[in-house]
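Lab meeting, action items carried over

1. Structure of the three-component assembly. Owner: GW. Status: complete.
Input record:
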Amino acid sequence: MQGLTVKELDCIRGDRLVFAGVALAVKPGRALLLSGANGSGKSSLLRILAGLLPPAAGSLAWEGENIDEDTEAHRRRIAYIGHADPVKPGLTVCENLEFWARLYGLEPEIEPALYQFGIEQLADLPARYLSAGQRRRLTLARLAVGQNSPWGPPLWLLDEPATGLDPSAVAMLANTILAHLANEGVAIIASHGGLLDESLSGHADRLDLQDAAP
Amino acid sequence: MIGMLLLIRRDLMLAFRGGTDAAMAVVFFILAATLFPFGVGPDPEVLPRIGGGVIWVVALLAAMLSLERMFSADYEDGSLEQFVLSPLPLVLVALAKIIAHWLTTGVLLLVAAPVLAVFYNLPAAAFLPLIVSMLLGTPTLSLIGAIGAALTLGARRSGVLISLLVLPLYIPVLIFGALVVDGALAGRDYGNLLMVLGGFLLLALAAAPWATAAALRQSIE
Amino acid sequence: MLHRFANPARFSRIAATMLPWVAGVTAILFIVGLYFALFASPADYQQGETVRIMYVHVPAAWTAMACYTFIAAMSAISLIWKHPLADIAARSAAPLGAGFTIIVLATGSLWGKPTWGTWWVWDARLTSVLVLLFLYLGHISLTHAFDNPARGAKAAAILALVGFVNIPIIKFSVDWWNTLHQPASLTRLDGPSIDPSMLTPLLLMGVAFTLYFVTMLLVRMRADLAATKARALRLNAAE
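Predicted assembly:
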């Protein structure tokens, strides 16, 4: 079994059953686009896959091995981008990115990553001056750092990554994801359709969480 | 280890560039302590007698005031999730944040304490015991406080809640911190009291990062 | 969804059959205990009739401390085995413990006025109990501070364990502080030796308080379970 395999996954938030019996399999070089209305559990599913949230039931396996066996190894293989931008206003763009790169043990090759998302001219600017879209680009640049590192994480979990991005930035994100897939990577992306979905359509399967609603 | 240093360095940079937050705790420390003479009168007999206790109580409150900011920014902007997913174990993340908190508040209180000792006419013999007791006691405040700060992430009225959770747990440090200064003033030997403060620090060092890490983990679920 | 309520449902059934019995025994013990405490035991030769306050004060103190231990044990079970009933038990017990603690403080104060001549003395025991009340209040506030009740339960469980570890440290510190600040010249709340005629009512009231705690715990847990179930039904009906 290659890539990520998920079986019979249930998710309970508070007292509410969000979804039940979710099964999916994503092979290296493929992306999975998650869709579904608000509250259908797209974010919860990504957080479960990242290991941030314990599932109510079900199993997750990477390369056929259950991820509970070695959670540390699982942490090393994922790159998770959530709704918020972990960007500190007091640090420069460069310092922000370098901090995360070093903390994750990645090659701190900052400039190419900034270039990949078109924010290389902002490198020495304190992040407090960035617009929402520029902050998002900076968050996503971490993916590029991982991509350019020899031990970059193979499993990308992206929660509505294109939020707040202009079309040119969406294209940069799509190219980054496509390069990741070409490199035998796996990407699972929550989205509301749009440009990103279209750019990835040739390499992606779809999962509608509405079908897994209880 | 490298990860911890990175994190401490980042928090220090943010504190120094952000500026006011850390300074606020010290300003509060001095301001609050200057209120007591207005309340009890500037009697030069009374002030030295209550000085050690007042300085310690106010240090407790000042340390507590800065707790709410300890994790909240990282919690709100998603940094905390990334810490949980990073290769650095969450216990060490917690410990690094605690060290950074102590460096940006406890140390500053330590530096400001002699000023207050002068305000309260404490005799010179009490200065060293005050500083040493604070050196041993304030890290314990950061350690215990971190648990409260992590437990209240995302809570309603978290500021008030932190004080309710943390202040009762601060009582032992307050008792022994103030006793050290009192002992020095009365000419008693206070070495064993310092040992107790050191013991509290070791206990807190052994337990608090784990409790904080557990609290941080459940805060993002 | 069913597996989550299977166990609590069984608990609810067992609790329902147990409740009348436990409540009945509690009532009988209270009647017998109070009879011994108020009529069938002698007045103290030093303290006179005020010693009878002890028959409420001391059992309440035992129960208040036992209750915190119970909460800590439930919290450990909840954190380690993630048993849903343990959370409910802990959050149902906390207000009861706070209530017992307030009884301890109030009766201690009532006893202090005729004995010490003041309503409040910074006696080591009373001070420790006051801190215990703060720990209870913190626990209760934290439980209800979150929009997601599961969050509150987990946070409170961690806090309960941290508090439990700290109680001996606080007790030790307060004792030290007390002996340094005031020499032990006061009459202690419970005298050094207890006459057997006083021990009978004390033990009877101790068991009565404990069973009262069990009764109220069962009532509160059942109410909590019912409320949780009602909320879940409403949420799932909304979809």
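2. GW to write a short summary for the group page. Key points so far: Chain B touches chain A at residues 2-3, 6-7, 10, 13-14, 17-18, 73-74, 76-79, 81-88, 220-221 (CB under 8 Å). Residues 2-220 of chain B form one domain.
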